[in-house]
Amino acid sequence: MVEKITGMLALIGVLSLFCQWLGWKLRLPAILPLLVCGLLLGPVFGILNPDAIFGDLLFPIISLGVAVILFEGALTLNFKEIKDHGRMVTHLVSIGMLITWGCISTATYYLLDFSWEVALLFGALVVVTGPTVIVPMLRSIRPKSQLASILRWEGIVIDPIGALLAVLVFEYITVSGNQTSHVLYALGSMLTMGLGLGAAAGYLVGQVIRHNLLPHYLRNTAVLTLMLGIFVGSNLLQEESGLLTVTVMGIWLANMRGVDIAEILEFKETLTVLLISALFILLAARLDSNAMMDLGWGGVGVLAVTMLIARPLSIWASGIGTSLSKADKWFLCWIAPRGIVAAAVSSLFAIKLEASNVQGADAIVPLVFLIIIGTVVIQSLTAGRWAKHLGVTSGAAQGLLIFGASKFSRELAKILRAKDVKVLLADSNWDNIRLARMDNIPVYFGNPASEHAETYMDLTGIGRVLIMSPYKQLNPLVTFYFQDVLGSKKVFGLNNAEQGSARHQLSESYKQRLCLFGDAVSYAKIASQMAKGAQLKVTNLTENFTFEHFRKRYGETALPLVYLTKEGKVVIVSGNETQFPNGIELISLLPVEALEEAKIQQMIAEQEAIAAQTKAAEEATLAKAKAEEKAEVERQRLDQQAQMKAKQSQSEHEPQDAIDRSDETLAKG
Question: Disordered: where is this region (predicted)?
Answer without folding.
Answer: 621-669
